[in-house]
Design goal:
The protein has 1 helix and 5 strands. It is mostly beta strands. The longest helix has 8 residues.
Length: about 100
């Protein structure tokens, strides 16, 4: 990501990010701006009844990951009409975000 020379190159490089999800804001010399929140975000089964409220029992299969959210479905924003992007300690996605 540090070698990216455009927003598009940064976006492509960020798709390999597997650490905890981060807010990443980027701009390039062409005036493009973007915000991406890359990570490997787990999808849990419907049997996962704890919903993140308490630690799960790691030895019970019902708490295993059943997959990850596809990179293309992770929150992002590119070149918004308002002309700026800001991130802070707030909801990073729209209320209708499916994940």
């Amino acid at each position: 990501m540090m070698r990216a020379d455009s927003v598009q190159a940064f976006d492509l490089a960020s798709r390999t990010w597997v650490a905890p999800q981060q807010n990443m804001v980027v701009a390039d010399q062409a005036g493009r701006i973007a915000w991406v929140a890359p990570a490997r975000v787990p999808v849990r089964s419907e049997e996962h009844d704890l919903k993140g409220v308490v630690p799960a029992l790691g030895w019970e299969a019902r708490y295993d990951w059943v997959g990850t959210i596809p990179v293309a479905q992770l929150p992002r924003e590119e070149d918004p009409a308002r002309g700026w992007i800001a991130t802070a300690n707030h909801r990073i996605h729209a209320a209708d975000y499916p994940h």
